[in-house]
Design brief:
The protein has about 130 residues and is an alpha+beta fold. The chain is built from 4 helices and 6 strands, in the order βββαβαββαα. The protein starts with a strand and ends with a helix.
Protein backbone atom coordinates (compact mmCIF):
# COMPACT_ATOMS: atom_id res chain seq x y z
CA UNK A 1 0.00 0.00 0.00
CA UNK A 2 2.76 2.41 -0.88
CA UNK A 3 2.19 5.68 -2.68
CA UNK A 4 -1.32 7.05 -2.31
CA UNK A 5 -3.89 5.77 0.12
CA UNK A 6 -5.43 4.84 2.35
CA UNK A 7 -8.45 7.05 2.82
CA UNK A 8 -10.05 7.38 6.23
CA UNK A 9 -13.66 8.36 6.85
CA UNK A 10 -15.02 9.49 10.19
CA UNK A 11 -18.47 9.95 11.63
CA UNK A 12 -18.60 12.29 14.62
CA UNK A 13 -15.84 11.02 16.91
CA UNK A 14 -15.73 7.53 15.37
CA UNK A 15 -13.13 6.49 12.81
CA UNK A 16 -14.54 4.21 10.14
CA UNK A 17 -12.56 1.38 8.51
CA UNK A 18 -9.79 2.49 6.16
CA UNK A 19 -10.19 2.00 2.42
CA UNK A 20 -7.34 1.16 0.06
CA UNK A 21 -7.82 2.41 -3.51
CA UNK A 22 -6.25 0.43 -6.33
CA UNK A 23 -6.63 2.30 -9.63
CA UNK A 24 -5.52 1.15 -13.09
CA UNK A 25 -1.80 1.88 -13.55
CA UNK A 26 -1.91 3.50 -10.08
CA UNK A 27 -3.67 6.53 -11.56
CA UNK A 28 -6.69 7.58 -9.48
CA UNK A 29 -7.71 10.41 -11.80
CA UNK A 30 -11.15 11.80 -12.70
CA UNK A 31 -11.77 9.06 -15.26
CA UNK A 32 -10.81 6.22 -12.92
CA UNK A 33 -12.70 7.75 -10.01
CA UNK A 34 -16.03 8.38 -11.69
CA UNK A 35 -16.26 6.49 -15.00
CA UNK A 36 -14.59 3.10 -14.71
CA UNK A 37 -15.35 -0.06 -12.86
CA UNK A 38 -11.68 -1.05 -12.99
CA UNK A 39 -10.78 0.87 -9.83
CA UNK A 40 -10.88 -1.39 -6.78
CA UNK A 41 -11.88 -0.22 -3.31
CA UNK A 42 -10.61 -2.57 -0.63
CA UNK A 43 -12.21 -2.31 2.80
CA UNK A 44 -10.99 -3.49 5.19
CA UNK A 45 -7.77 -2.15 3.69
CA UNK A 46 -5.52 -5.07 4.61
CA UNK A 47 -3.20 -3.35 7.08
CA UNK A 48 -2.50 -4.95 10.44
CA UNK A 49 -5.12 -3.86 12.99
CA UNK A 50 -2.60 -1.93 15.12
CA UNK A 51 -1.41 0.09 12.13
CA UNK A 52 -4.97 0.82 11.01
CA UNK A 53 -5.81 2.06 14.53
CA UNK A 54 -2.69 4.26 14.54
CA UNK A 55 -3.71 5.86 11.23
CA UNK A 56 -7.29 6.33 12.44
CA UNK A 57 -5.98 8.05 15.59
CA UNK A 58 -3.85 10.43 13.50
CA UNK A 59 -6.88 11.26 11.36
CA UNK A 60 -9.13 11.84 14.38
CA UNK A 61 -6.53 14.07 16.10
CA UNK A 62 -6.09 16.01 12.84
CA UNK A 63 -9.84 16.48 12.43
CA UNK A 64 -10.08 17.71 16.02
CA UNK A 65 -7.12 20.09 15.59
CA UNK A 66 -8.75 21.56 12.47
CA UNK A 67 -12.11 21.97 14.22
CA UNK A 68 -13.91 19.43 12.04
CA UNK A 69 -17.17 18.06 13.34
CA UNK A 70 -19.86 15.75 12.07
CA UNK A 71 -18.39 13.66 9.30
CA UNK A 72 -15.65 13.74 6.73
CA UNK A 73 -12.88 11.86 5.01
CA UNK A 74 -9.13 12.21 5.13
CA UNK A 75 -6.81 11.32 2.28
CA UNK A 76 -3.32 10.19 3.14
CA UNK A 77 -0.08 9.03 1.63
CA UNK A 78 1.48 5.95 3.20
CA UNK A 79 5.11 5.32 2.41
CA UNK A 80 6.80 1.94 2.22
CA UNK A 81 8.32 2.52 5.69
CA UNK A 82 4.80 2.92 7.15
CA UNK A 83 5.03 6.68 7.71
CA UNK A 84 2.01 8.72 6.65
CA UNK A 85 1.27 12.26 5.56
CA UNK A 86 -2.16 13.82 5.68
CA UNK A 87 -3.04 15.27 2.28
CA UNK A 88 -6.43 16.79 3.08
CA UNK A 89 -9.59 16.45 5.09
CA UNK A 90 -12.72 16.65 3.01
CA UNK A 91 -15.54 17.99 5.20
CA UNK A 92 -18.17 17.48 2.54
CA UNK A 93 -17.31 14.17 0.86
CA UNK A 94 -19.42 12.58 -1.84
CA UNK A 95 -22.44 10.39 -1.24
CA UNK A 96 -22.75 8.57 -4.60
CA UNK A 97 -22.52 4.91 -5.51
CA UNK A 98 -18.73 5.30 -5.86
CA UNK A 99 -18.28 7.39 -2.73
CA UNK A 100 -15.93 6.28 0.00
CA UNK A 101 -17.73 7.29 3.21
CA UNK A 102 -20.76 5.07 2.45
CA UNK A 103 -18.38 2.18 1.62
CA UNK A 104 -16.55 2.50 4.94
CA UNK A 105 -19.82 2.95 6.85
CA UNK A 106 -21.21 -0.23 5.31
CA UNK A 107 -18.20 -2.22 6.53
CA UNK A 108 -18.74 -0.65 9.97
CA UNK A 109 -22.32 -1.95 9.96
CA UNK A 110 -24.23 1.15 8.81
CA UNK A 111 -26.29 0.92 5.65
CA UNK A 112 -26.79 4.04 3.53
CA UNK A 113 -30.05 5.07 5.24
CA UNK A 114 -28.54 4.68 8.72
CA UNK A 115 -25.50 6.71 7.64
CA UNK A 116 -27.65 9.55 6.31
CA UNK A 117 -29.76 9.58 9.48
CA UNK A 118 -26.63 9.73 11.67
CA UNK A 119 -25.30 12.65 9.62
CA UNK A 120 -28.62 14.48 9.90
CA UNK A 121 -28.77 13.87 13.67
CA UNK A 122 -25.40 15.64 14.00
CA UNK A 123 -26.39 18.64 11.85
CA UNK A 124 -26.25 22.06 13.47
CA UNK A 125 -28.69 24.65 12.19
CA UNK A 126 -28.53 28.30 13.14
Amino acid sequence: MGGRGPTAAFLNDEALPLIRIVAPQGNYDYQNKYFTDDTKYICPCGLPAAEERRIQQVVMRSAEALGCSGWGRADLIRRADGSISLLEINTSPGMTGHSLVPMAAKVAGLDFQQLVLRILEMAHVG
